[in-house]
Write a structure and sequence with these properties.
Blueprint lengths: L1 H19 L8 H17 L4 H20 L4
Helix pairs in contact: 1-2, 1-3, 2-3
Length: 73
């Protein structure tokens, strides 16, 4: 059950992360990162790994985007 909840959180984060890759809207990564982090923690509590892995990929992409742009642009 926690895995399904983690996947749902990851899908919400993914829908928000796709437009955040556009340079003008990149500040949205500040919203995506905590959502994916919550999904990752919920995925850690589950016995399966698919929800955790989905949120981990989103965390890496949005975190890298924030790191490369200095968190502003």
């Amino acid at each position: 059950m926690l895995n399904i909840f983690s996947i749902l959180i990851g899908l919400v984060a993914l829908v928000l992360a796709i437009p955040a890759l556009i340079p003008v809207i990149s500040l949205m990564n500040w919203i995506v990162f905590p959502i994916a982090l919550v999904g990752f923690v919920v995925g850690l509590l589950s016995s399966k790994t698919s929800g955790r892995n989905l949120n981990l990929i989103i965390l890496i992409v949005s975190g890298l985007r924030l790191f490369l742009t200095g968190g502003l642009i």
